[in-house]
Amino acid sequence: MRLKPNTVLAITGPTASGKTALSLAIASIPGMRAEIISADSRQIYKGLDIGTAKPTPMELAKIPHHFIDICEPDESYNAGKFAKDAQDIIASLLQRNILPIIVGGSGLYVQALCEGFFDMPTEMEQAFMDARVDVQEAYQHIGKDALFEELRRVDPQSCNDYPDKNPRRVMRALEFHKATGKRFSEEKSAMMKHPTFNTIYVMIDHERSKLYARINQRCEEMWDGMVNETRTLIQKGLSQSAQSFDTVGYAQAISFLNGEIDREIAIEEMKQATRHYAKRQITWSKRVDGMILLQGDITEMAHKSLQLLNADA
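Below the sequence we write its predicted structure tokens.
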């Protein structure tokens, strides 16, 4: 089979849906030459293994992975840096006819890599993150049309650029204005760095009850190990307020270790927080243009993904 040239596959979607298993199944298809780009903002950290559901040492040895364990747990890293670094690796892989498979639930990382990112100073990242939260909350409360009118007020040219009122593009323009005070339409060409490859997006689509059952089971299975992992990191000197600990699961483990909540409550809070996070991941994925939903077992989904990549299809 000939794969589409200059094309990558991005496996997105909620936590516990099976993204890692699917990526390994695709990469292991006979004759396939593939490597995995982890787009997970927490799997980059050394020592945060259980709570981030990091691929096992056996899985990492089976297929080459990138962006696993690249940072110390107290080190700063961001989506823009990831996109720059990952684009270089992807260019090298494509040049050698190796399929890059992007895997991860960090929508900001996937978006920066596959759709472009603002080449901005690191100190501006928090302003963009805060703006993103504000705009997403506004979208949930007032809807697409009202958000579009808000953009017309601050950046009418961007409204002309997006006559279809695409929510993601409208939100991005508003995020930029809120973070910088400047019009996206006037600054994007200078600050925006676009990818040179094409992306096929897929998302594993479970029934909500099945997904929540998978999440609940995973939380129960990882809890004791994650508590020990958290305790070890703190004993080694990692601050409880470290960015790497600002993650579902670790927050509950820290509260448990501090004696603020008991084990049962901590696990239930972790389950609830993980389900809420999964809902946000699903919302982001379903807003992506051209997103293809996959259902069935791993073999069926891997076969469907391969068909999408087929240059002769």
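The radius of gyration is 20 Å.
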